[in-house]
Amino acid sequence: MKAVTWQGPRKMSVEDVPDPRLEEPSDAIIEVTSTAICGSDLHLYEVLGPFMRPGDIVGHESMGRVVDAGPESNLHPGDRVVVPFQIACGNCYFCQQGLQTQCETTQVTAQGSGAMLFGYSEIYGSVPGGQAEYLRVPHADYGPIKVGDELPDHRYLFLSDVLPTAWQAVAYALRSPGDSVAVLGLGPIGQFCARIAQHLGMTVYAIDPVPERREMAARHGAVVYDSTEDSVGQIKEATQGRGPDAVIDAVGMEAHGDAQSRLAKFAQRSVQFLPDKLGKPVMEKAGMDRLAALYTGIELVRRGGTLSLSGVYGGQASPLPMLTLFDKQIQVTMGQANVRRWVEEILPLVEDSDDPLGLEDFVTHRLPLSEAPSAYEMFQKKEDGCIKVVLDPTA
Q1: Vertex 10, ends 7 and 12: CA angle to 5°?
Q2: Could you give the CA distance from residue 277 to residue 32 in angstroms, rounded to a whole number?
Q3: CA distance 196 to 217
């Protein structure tokens, strides 16, 4: 089959690889009909090279049709399913607590990490990902989300990651209708954070340097600002000088801006050129994130407010302004999205004919799988108004 493979920092390639096969009674094999490039995939593209191997199959936002199913999978050939990005058993203590990203059955204990993720490096199990013609789905008796045949893929695909991640970020902001929320970063996750908060009755402010991203968020009710020094002051002025009740950081470890972020960017890129035996310990023990977005969130949120982190952070030596966090009594919430925990709340909105979350106004580029390398470059460079890329392995 054809699959998108990592070949080195900022180098993706579509290669012929062996077809997946059933390995456990609860496995299923799906023919992938749509698979998306996620902002988190750009961390593999740019930063997490020490944990990748040439030939690793990437991708963790996929859906398709079941073509083969183990006897314990609860699936049958022909079933249409969306595959959550994490692999969870559904039965362990953490799954029962709604913390599927901490699944005890699939935890990558050798790395000290939570549940296995599709296509996401040695840190999360080196599981072949879904940017491919076919995908093996472990624990298919629990993970896959069965969906109907009436709606097109783009109405369901984002149940795999984007929608639950954004929903959790808003839920973790601990706010109610009438409260105010600022969203930092209007990539795919930030777009839906803004829409979901708006849908739930909150006033939404959003900051992003890219005009096309601001325009999309404004179409769905957000009050948008460029990434300038004036933006924080303007949002504070709009919130009686206090700042919003919550800030959602949808940017993460690759933020741009302050001197610390520029230093961290240099360090992150330098690690890519170290031998793996040196690069991995540096990332594991002394890695630094680019913290411009996080610092902005700490400055912007009102005293006693909540900072909800949905952007991925990976540094172990990132400096935090603990005095400010403590003095302002800021609650900080974070974590990978627990997909199955939120699906029942999101699915009716996905299938609503009124499209309350604007799924018809989200995908900016749909391309064949063969164009994945150029799509990664376009997405990383924010060219051609690129906000969300969906790859079609059947094209």
Answers
A1: 45
A2: 35
A3: 11
Instruction: Encode 4-29: b = buried (16+ Cβ within 10 Å), e = exposed.
Output: bbbeebeebebeebeebebeeebbbb
Q: How far apart are CA 379 and CA 40, in angstroms?
A: 11
Helices marked H in the chain — which ranges? Answer: 41-46, 93-96, 153-156, 162-172, 188-199, 211-219, 229-238, 259-271, 276-286, 292-300, 322-327, 339-351, 372-381
Dist CA 58 CA 15 (whole Å): 12
* CA-based nearest residue to 187, from 213, 155, 151, 216: 213
Amino acid at 121: S
The CATH topology of domain 2-161+338-392 is Quinone Oxidoreductase; Chain A, domain 1 (3.90.180)
Nearest in space to 296 (alpha carbons), one of 205, 194, 387, 198: 205
pTM of the model: 0.91
Rounded Cα gap, residues 214 and 243, in angstroms: 20
Burial 306-315 (b: 16+ CB within 10 A, else e): bbbbbbbbbb
Q: What is the pLDDT of residue 313?
A: 84
Two tokens, residue 328: 């302002």
CATH architecture entry for 163-334:
3-Layer(aba) Sandwich (3.40)
**What are the backbone dihedrals phi and psi of residue 18, each rounded to the nearest 5 degrees, phi first?**
-65, 145
> Hunting for tokens 């170290």 — which residue is that?
274
Tens-place pLDDT, residues 341-394: 999 999 999 999 999 999 999 999 999 999 999 999 999 999 999 999 999 999
The residues spanned by each domain of the chain are: 2-161+338-392, 163-334
CA distances to 231, 359, 375, 381 from 213, in Å = 16, 15, 17, 13
Q: Which residues pair with 183 in a beta bridge?
A: 206, 248
CA dihedral sign, ordered 114, 186, 42, 134: positive
